[in-house]
Specification:
Number of helices: 1
Structural class: mainly beta
Strand content: over 45%
Mean pLDDT: 87
Shape: globular
Order of helices and strands: EEEEEEHEEEEE
Number of strands: 11
Largest sheet: 8 strands, antiparallel, barrel
Distance between the termini: 26 Å
Helix content: under 10%
Low-confidence stretches: none
């Protein structure tokens, strides 16, 4: 499949802002080598600029890392410290796209992710949900995306050895985005 504007029902060029009430940013990481800890970020922002050629579109997003929520306040406070996010010095995680491409049936958004002052290349495997107009006349665009990062590459190195072998946390963190955007201007 070739990703073109005509191949996407309802596609419109313009600037889109994230709809935070219909979007979520979640993550998971291996815990105690037997299960996963999951959480979310409660505050985030993103702007998508769709171009005539969808592959020329751009995406910029930021996440307030202090808004982390793992449903355990003590753990969330620890995650804000220098052991993890060092939120006082690095309050945001930022993604900036560098290109969009197709790989078979997959849409991939390449970009840079900056976390804790370290910038690395990442790719978001993206599933386009569609474009529609809601009951209030707002044009909405939906998508899901996922990527996996090695937290240690971003300076998030805290860990503790387990008595039975292994470590408290895995290095790989899966980040999932389930988002809706609202068309701001065409």
């Amino acid at each position: 499949m070739t990703l073109t504007a005509s191949a996407i029902p309802g596609y419109q060029t313009g600037t889109w802002k994230i709809d935070p009430t219909h979007s979520e940013v979640t993550f998971s990481v291996r815990h105690l080598a037997i299960s996963k800890v999951k959480g979310s970020f409660e505050r985030f922002d993103a702007t998508l600029v769709t171009a005539e050629n969808p592959l020329d579109s751009t995406l910029e997003a930021s996440i307030d890392v202090a808004s982390i929520n793992t449903n355990q306040a003590q753990r969330d406070q620890h995650l804000a410290t220098g052991d993890f996010f060092l939120t006082e010095e690095h309050p945001q995680m930022v993604f900036k796209s560098t290109g969009i491409r197709e790989d078979g049936d997959d849409m991939l958004i390449d970009g840079t992710l900056t976390l804790r002052g370290v910038t690395k290349d990442v790719t978001l495997k993206t599933e386009f949900g569609g474009v529609t107009t809601d009951g209030y006349g707002q044009v909405k665009l939906g998508a899901e995306a996922t990527t996996k990062i090695d937290r240690t590459e971003f300076g998030v190195n805290w860990n503790a050895a387990l008595e039975a072998g292994g470590f408290t946390l895995g290095n790989d963190v899966t980040i999932n985005l389930d988002v809706q955007f609202v068309l701001q201007a065409a």
